[in-house]
Inverse folding.
């Protein structure tokens, strides 16, 4: 990894004022979340809160950001804790989705964006106009498992593998009593019941990551591109992870995919994945971190794009994982926003920032990745 000297010239983007203007529009609701204890509370309420996180604060600044909905809960927590410790800085994050977040960043409406898939080469080239003297880079920040939830009365321990999942979501296996499912669950009383496979109706990073897993681990059964729109045949659709999860909860025989927090919130059982390890792997923050740990950094210079090993057989490594990247300029950042940007990201990537994630059903970054992220944040200019 190559690191730049902090003393290099800093450039001011041509549309610098745009981000400051957009801050007031895109972030008001999230700012209110971060400051809600002041509007609601008494001194007693404030005294009851734990001490603020240990943060090397910037003195002032406004940071508009937008993008991935997958990291919304983590961002809300981080913003609230950062602003408790650093009241001079205001941070906004608008969860408009990965694609919209990147688009806003590329038109200089935000200083950072969150995306569940790394920037495309054409986006990196466009970013050179946003980051004079530099370019946009991907910094992994939030991990998590994509859970496969199901609704089968009396079945609370279901095992599937990549090939069987691919055939279910491609309408080749359509009944829960299919021999392939029985073989993976010899001690489970599987009903003669039609499978209702439910997928996202909207483009999403969650769908793209599931497509990538099925393509990587079950390539013969899933010959589709790794895109954000659904690729399989048949099935039913619902909008958003919340829509898919709700449909699964309300439909006997249903199966679908969504972030683990939705399964936990709606009390939906999740599939254990037979990866070829000695035991099937359950979706959890810990097993997802182990799955992310098998990833390889394939980005160039300070870009930390990860390539996952979807066919991993490592013990306790859940293979269907998602990472949300923070997209920032490696150079050419607006001088008046740079200290706050580096301070906030340094906190989110810190041990203290990462250790709270399992409580929200996210997976902390593996240590080796987190260390690299912190090193790159320190070199932003």
């Amino acid at each position: 990894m190559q690191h730049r000297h902090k003393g290099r010239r800093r450039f001011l983007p041509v549309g610098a004022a745009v981000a400051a203007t957009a801050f007031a529009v895109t972030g008001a609701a999230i700012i209110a979340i971060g400051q809600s204890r002041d509007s609601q509370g008494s001194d007693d309420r404030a005294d009851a809160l734990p001490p603020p996180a240990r943060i090397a604060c910037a003195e002032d600044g406004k940071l508009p950001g937008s993008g991935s909905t997958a990291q919304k809960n983590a961002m809300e927590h981080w913003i609230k804790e950062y602003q408790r410790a650093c009241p001079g800085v205001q941070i906004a994050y608008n969860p408009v989705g990965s694609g919209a977040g990147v688009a806003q960043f590329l038109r200089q409406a935000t200083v950072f964006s969150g995306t569940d898939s790394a920037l495309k080469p054409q986006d990196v080239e466009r970013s050179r106009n946003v980051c004079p003297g530099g370019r946009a880079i991907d910094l992994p920040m939030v991990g998590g498992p994509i859970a496969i939830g199901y609704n089968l009365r009396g079945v609370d321990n279901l095992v599937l593998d990549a090939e069987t999942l691919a055939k279910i979501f491609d309408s080749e296996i359509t009944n829960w009593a299919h021999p392939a499912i029985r073989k993976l669950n010899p001690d489970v009383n599987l009903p003669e019941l039609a499978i209702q496979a439910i997928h996202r109706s909207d483009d999403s990073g969650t769908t793209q990551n599931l497509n990538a897993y099925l393509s990587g681990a079950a390539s013969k059964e899933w010959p589709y591109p790794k895109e954000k729109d659904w690729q399989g045949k048949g099935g039913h659709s619902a909008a958003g992870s919340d829509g898919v999860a709700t449909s699964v909860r309300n439909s006997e025989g249903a199966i679908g995919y969504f972030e683990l927090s939705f399964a936990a919130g709606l009390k939906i059982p999740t599939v254990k994945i037979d990866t070829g390890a000695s035991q099937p792997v359950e979706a959890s923050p810990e097993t997802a971190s182990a799955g992310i740990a098998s990833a390889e950094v394939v980005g160039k210079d300070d870009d930390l794009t990860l390539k996952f090993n979807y066919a991993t057989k490592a013990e306790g490594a859940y293979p269907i994982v998602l990472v949300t990247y923070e997209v920032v300029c490696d150079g050419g950042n607006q001088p008046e926003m740079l200290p706050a940007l580096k301070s906030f990201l340094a906190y989110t990537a810190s041990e203290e920032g990462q250790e709270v994630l399992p409580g929200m059903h996210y997976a902390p970054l593996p240590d080796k990745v987190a260390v690299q992220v912190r090193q790159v944040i320190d070199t932003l200019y």
User: Anything to note?
Assistant: Confidence is low (pLDDT under 50) at residues 1-47. The chain has two domains: 16-142+325-379, 145-290. The first helix runs from residue 16 to 26. DSSP finds 16 helices and twelve strands in the chain.
